[in-house]
Each structure stands twice: as structure tokens, then as C-alpha cells.
Amino acid sequence: MITPTARPTMAAPAHARTVLIIDDDAVALDATTHPFVARGWNTLRALSGPQAIELYEQERPDLVILDIGIAGMSGMDTLRVLRARDAAATVIMLSAKDDVSIAVEAMQLGAENFIAKPFQAQQLMTIVEHAYEKSLLRRRNSVLGARQVRDSSLASLGQSSAMQTLGREIELLAAGRAPILLSGETGSGKGWVAKLIHAASPRHAAPFVAINCAGLSMSFLDTELFGHEKGAFTDAKSQKLGLFEVADGGTLMLDEIGDMPLDLQPKLLTVLETQRFRRLGGTREIEVDVRLIAASHVDLAAATAAGKFREDLYYRIAALPVHIPSLRERGSEEIVDLALQLFASVREQLGRGPKRISTAALTLMSRHDWPGNVRELRNVLERSLLLAGSEEEVGPEHLPSELRARIPARTPQPGDLSMAAAERTHILQVLATAAGNRVRAAKLLGVSRQTLYNRLHEYGLDEA
């Protein structure tokens, strides 16, 4: 372990900038360090490339001053590694030779600037100030970009109160490290929510890995999660990394964790508590940094009480429970919105089918219970697109019989059977489907908002 060396001549403020200075000449290292200390920077010092890389990983300084001519691992190689580990690393190269070709190579590898020795302190600090400002801007833009991606993803959750509550929970829980337990009906989108949590977390740049535990044998799931060494068993022809290693630094989702074999659960508990494990057939302990998101459509508390799931593991993973609302809980308006989103996505994947869904078909969808939730909705849309073929729109006749059967047949009532009366009734039905939202109703009807407003006024439905 390399201990940062700081030699400030004055107390550095809490918000002080940090620089990592790398030079194998102790005298030159002191000379380069002095102007930073005089200006209140926190300074980290390393005498070699490997030391510098370790320090950079630990401290993530704002700026790196790197001498090209260090012994052992060269300055150029050190630059390559630093930039590979962190594309935002801001590195200024120092060289005893004022060689244009060396400077060009350094810049091509990602160096921010190049200074030939000897140099004046003011010259160095002027270049440093410019480099720091550019570094700060890059990092702010990176954070803003990640936040915009996160916010746009959370916005896709929908506008119902149930989903807005879920969005707030995701924002709060994503920043933590403790395991999260997702519960919800089959097909409600637990895998999708797990990805949103990962995307909103500080781990978003690291891997997100998922595996479904349902139907997997203990031996297969063991090697999938923890890996094995070559020769650990008959068919182990080579070493295999487990998913905990693959997800190091990121997030691992265990879907249907309630189906995990009881004999494997103690091993999972140990990994969650220690972040250490051994591959099957191995003797070396492997340390990882992985956040677990578990998911189950069954009641794990009931399964625990029935002895089908370990109590200690349940309490370990259930510290942060999150319920995913079913489509029934989200409301008809959100079902329509989600149907339209999925319709566009499925049609793009299929590359065929009508370009729109009829209002009548959307109305049927909005009133269905959707026991299979989002997965069922997507399957219905894919089937309807295929059945509709070259027709202009997906209609009720292309939907499964169970959707059509839920709406009782409407018998004509005595009275006004004119086209105007039928249109008035149809507009009322679409307004109900859109929960009174006239913009959405106009979209469903395929008319402009002004046309809809005119019709509402014409039929005395201004207050509908």
C-alpha cells in the first residue's frame, strides 16, 4: 500500500485541489511539488509508475504531473494505463528533452500538455490552471450527462402515483450499497427496474449482470455465480470467472432468488457479508465489490416461515424492499401510454405491421387486468402486429379473445342512432381511456387538438 506524501507549508482548505506528481528523481520531485504546496494544493507523490497508478486509483486527484523519463515502467506506459483506467484523467507530461515527436506522441495518448525541463514555476502553474479548468468542465459535463440519462430513464416510469412513488424510491436507494429486494407480480418489470437502479447509482459505469435462478441446479448456479478452476471437475477444461467477478464494481441481479437451492444460500450469505469467496476447486480468496439486487415474484417472508428460504439470508437481502406495481395498479391511462411505447418498439424490431393501433383496441387494452403485466402486454402487441399483417391499423379483431371478451357486447339503444351520436359516444369513450386528458385523447383519435375542442363544443361536451 502506498501512502500519499503531502508536505504542505500551510493548512490546505477542505476544498483544496489535489495533484499527483510522479518523478523518480527525489530532488526534481521536491522542486515540482513546491509551487503546488505554496498555492494550497494537496500533493500526492510517487517515485514510479506502479506507485502512481495505485495512488491514482485510491485518491482520484484532479491533476497528474508525470515525468516521461521515470525508470522501470516508462512515463508513456504509465500515461496509457492512467488514461485506460480513467478517460477523464488530466495529465501534464514533463521531459528533460524538448522533443516535438515525444510531445506529439504524449498528446496522442491523451496528455493534456507537455512541458520541457527546466521550467519556471509560474510557467508550470499557468499551464496547470488552464488544464484544471478544462478538467473541471469535463467532469461536470460527465456528471451532468449521467444525470440526464438517469433522469430520462426515471421519467419513463410513467405518471401514475404508484410509479412516481417508485421513481422516488429508486433515486433514494440507488446511492447506497446495501442489497435491494424487488417484489412484484410476474412480468411487472423487475429486471427493468433493477437496470434503472444501477443506471442511477454511482456504479453506473461498471457492469450490470443478471441471472435467473429459476430451474437451475445447485452445481450449475454455483459455478455461474462463483466460477471454477481448471480441473475442478471432469468437464472443467479451463478456468471460469463467476458472475460476482464479472460484476466487480457494479451490480449483480439475482432474479427469482426464492428458487435458489437451500444448500447454496449459506455461500451467498457469506459473500454478501464479507465480499469474499473462492472459486470451485480454488484455494485463493477473491475479493469483490458488488451490490446485489434480488428479485422474487413469490412472498419470500412466507417462504422463509415455511422453511423454504433461509431466514438469515432473507433479512440480509430484505433491508431495502421495493414493490413494483402491477399494471392494474398503474391505471388505464398509463396502460395506454405504455402500450403505445411498446407498440413502436415492437414494430421497429419486427420491421413490419401497421403503424398505429385503433382507439377501440387501445380501449380494450386499458380495461384488461393484465395478469402477466408488461410481459403479457408486449406479447399481445407482437401477436397483434403479426396478425394484422398489411392492414392500416391494429384493431380489436387482432387482439386475443380474452381481451375482447372482457367488454360486454353493446346492444343498440332506442333513440338517436345517427353518425353524430355515434361519434359523440366514441369521443366520450376515448376521453375516459385518456382519463380526461384532451391532448392524449386527440392523439388517440388521430385528430388535432383544435378539431377535438370543436367537436366537444359541438356536442356539448366542453366539461366532459
Q: Describe it for me?
A:
This protein has helices at residues 26-38, 49-59, 75-85, 100-108, 121-155, 161-174, 190-199, 218-226, 243-246, 265-274, 300-305, 311-317, 327-330, 332-350, 359-367, 373-388, 401-404, 419-433, 438-445, 449-458, and strands spanning 18-22, 42-46, 63-67, 91-95, 113-116, 180-183, 208-212, 227-228, 240-241, 251-255, 276-277, 286-287, 291-296, 320-323, 356-357, 393-394. By secondary structure, it is of the alpha/beta class. The longest helix is centred in the first third of the chain and has 35 residues, at 121-155. It is extended.
Write the layout of secondary structure elements.
Blueprint: E1 18-22, H1 26-38, E2 42-46, H2 49-59, E3 63-67, H3 75-85, E4 91-95, H4 100-108, E5 113-116, H5 121-155, H6 161-174, E6 180-183, H7 190-199, E7 208-212, H8 218-226, E8 227-228, E9 240-241, H9 243-246, E10 251-255, H10 265-274, E11 276-277, E12 286-287, E13 291-296, H11 300-305, H12 311-317, E14 320-323, H13 327-330, H14 332-350, E15 356-357, H15 359-367, H16 373-388, E16 393-394, H17 401-404, H18 419-433, H19 438-445, H20 449-458
Helix pairs in contact: 2-3, 6-7, 14-15, 14-16, 18-19, 19-20
